[in-house]
Amino acid sequence: EDGSKTRVGLEAGSFGTVVGSVGHAIKNGETALSFNLSKVKTDGFSARASDEEADGFSQTLLTVKGQTEVGNGIIIGGSALYRDSSIELDRSTTNAAGETFGLQRGARVFTQFNALSIEHELSFSSFDTERLDPGGFTEEFNGDRTQIAYLGTTETRFGTLSFGLDETKEDFLTSADVGDSTTRSAMVELLAQVSDATDLALSLRYDDNDDFGGNLSGRVALAWQARSDLTVRTVIGNGFRSPSLYERFGPFGDPDLQVEASRSFEVGIEQNWDIGGYEATIFYTEIDDLIGFDFGAGGYLQTPGTTKSKGIELSGERVVSDRTTIDGTYTFTDARTEGERLARVPRHDLTVGVTTQFSDRLSGSARIQHVFDTQPSAFAPTDNKVDDYTLVGLGVSYDVNETTEAYFRIENLFDDDYETAGGFNTAGRSFYAGIRAEF
After folding, report:
1. CB distance 312 to 347 below 8 Å
2. I need a labelling partner for 297 at 20 to 30 A (CA). Which of 34, 181, 227, 254 fits?
3. Taking Cα atoms as reference points, which of 46, 122, 58 lies closest to residue 85?
4. Between vectors from CA 274 to CA 395 and to CA 401, what angle results, nearest 5°?
5. What pTM was estimated for this model as a whole?
6. Cβ atoms within 10 A of the Cβ of 249, count?
7. What's the per-residue H, E or C state across 299-319?
8. 245: Cβ–Cβ under 8 A, 6 or more apart, which residues?
9. Cβ burial 259-279 (10 Å sphere, 16+ → b, else e)
10. pLDDT tier for residue 3 given thresholds of 50, 70 and 90
């Protein structure tokens, strides 16, 4: 909306955590400018389960975005990002004194205009990452990514048609390795209303990589509104992923890695009422030559065969009174490679929550998550804690006035001691309080 808006926030809590943020945005017609600045600092807890030395983290993040109309419907704009961070890492079981420093800078410029009944957008972006890890396996890392892109959108008798071209170049340099890659892509997408009750989306993309050649991927999505409160959806598609430069040329890389290829299908139903609703989705995905990491072999490798993931996702919400709402989600996942279960993928993930309005200004929430039937990796320590776990969270918020809110929350209320990856800690019981305002 036209006008200006400012947001500020401050939070403090367990592990010596302090988070602050400020953002401001102004808009007048097609002219707009905004920025967001945030700072987080925490003493943290030990990432390694075998010691108690805390691993801290700090980060400063600044984003800026703006655009304006220069005449004749031509809009120019850009955005920028700056991130400065440091994170403490244990070098080994006997050396917990490591620290990694990171610096990321990114920018994007674009122009938009209308010609021949087509909305055109031309853009150029550049992103640079620097990491310094004294005493680490890769002490210095510098990576760059640039992209030039075109996107066109127009209305046709069949629906909304979008088409585009882009070229992305990536390169990295370390004290021991160097690598680069260029990908040229073309895409087209059609969003069509087949009937008053049926919407169709068709998309096709072709990517040509210098090292891996051409790959064609597509997607078909259909949504049918059987009744005003009932929608049935189905999606089928295929995709691929080229190995990253780090996976190929880094200290643990394998230059012979090849492309992952995937196929996916899902069908879902969504029911909505005035007092709530539910959604159910059945999904199936298979990936050939999944890229994984083998601690025994000491690096990245191609997983032989086909990895299949299938399951069901359920979610629902119900208003039980004019002040209280309950909601829940459940996901069952069966993930296997050639019949062998995939490690660290829980078969069952259940979450139930309730929110209530105690008064016009005071509200509260409670949430329980139960994750069970997870298999640790073959490289997890024998005393690992990758098992079933239950997390309980509580929160309250109070509207100080029309623009300011104070809040307090507890995470992992019962201090459940668990791991999602063998040998790596997770946070115990923790408390956070904060205040945020928008004016």
Report:
1. no
2. 181
3. 58
4. 40
5. 0.91
6. 19
7. EEEECCCEEEEEEEEEEEEEE
8. 143, 170, 171, 172, 179, 180, 181
9. bbbbebebebebeeeeeeeeb
10. very high
